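Sorry to interrupt, but I need a hand with the structure work. Could you add the entry underneath, on a fresh line?
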Amino acid sequence: MEQRPQEVKNPLWTKDFTIITVGSVVSMLGSVLSGFAMSLLVLDYTKSTLLFAVYNVLFMLPHAVMPALCGPFLDRFSRRKTIYTLDFITAGLYVVMGLIFAGGYFNFALLAVFCVAIGIIGSVYRVAYDSFYPLLITEGNYTKAYSVASTLETLTTVMTPLSALIYNKLGVVPLFFFNALTYLAAAIMETRITAQEHYIARQEENRTESRMGRQMVADFKEGMRYLWGEKGLLAVAVYFCFSAFANGASQTLDLPYFKSTFQNGEYIFMIVWGMSSVGRAIGGGLHYKLHLPKEKKYTIALAVYIIINALEGTYLYTPIPAMMVMCFIVGILGVTSYNIRIAGTQRYVPDEKKGRFNGAFGTIETVGMVAGQLIAGALAEFLPIRGIISGIMALTTVGAVVFIGGNRAAVSRVYNTED
């Protein structure tokens, strides 16, 4: 990395960017607190890796369908209003769940319904947020902005140990109510964003159908054609389907492995993967101050993909201190991968197509993750967890070589761009 030759004249921290950043951090704090506690609740209640995988899949299934469906909608309607409306709804859902659990009505079926509802909301919110966020970034500040986003998202993981502590001492109900407050606060802040969404008018000029339903179908098909016609974007999307498959397997198997292998394994899990968060925070800070050479971004990304897969495929065979070091490296490399990919694709895709692209990308990625969760959870019933993770990471490495390495020219056009 090298220093920028001159300071960027446009300020990054405008009023709108500050609001979206603070609001997202506040809601993420609550999500981390309640999300990890719910994972522990499911594991303690079911005592089954397979049912834990089913729980994860129920949350992720809406992410496989809703992004592609809502992407065209979000290219024609206000993403800002969608974001704060969904945050208000989420706050209400957590209040309801808190009251139900406080009354002692917990069962797996109820939790499953709640997970599906939150998954639907979260999947639509993610597309709206990813498509709206670039509109709040001033010219020349893409890398800085996404460094801020990834760093703050990482820092919210410090709430994970607190989540485990509160869950073990007080249960999940206080966490539900706290999460409701954080989403309510975020929604109120987001109503103050004033950025103009000019893409809506441009899309209306391109309307081809009189009925909204038919127009949504036409937009969806056009979005799929756009992705299919962009060889570089398609290669990135396919590789990240492999990467999401590996992440799904890791999310499903890592925590059960630590809980079954070590006494107080959930705390060791948090310590080990906490080093990844430290690495991501440090990496995000470096990317905020420094920038990668434009012509090297593709090469760096490909190397990062391969190294991350190698480290995650082998770390469980090492002593705990070595695991911590390897996860620290994964964290630094992970934020590098994220910044190159997200900044490159969001610069490359026109504003009026961002919803459709992000929706299609989210669907492809989620299909991979759900497949990883299901297959890994099923395999873990009769195969050793470490061997499953190693095999999946090896497969993901092949995906990086074939799809990213095999499409060098096309992917370089997406990645090797300046802010």
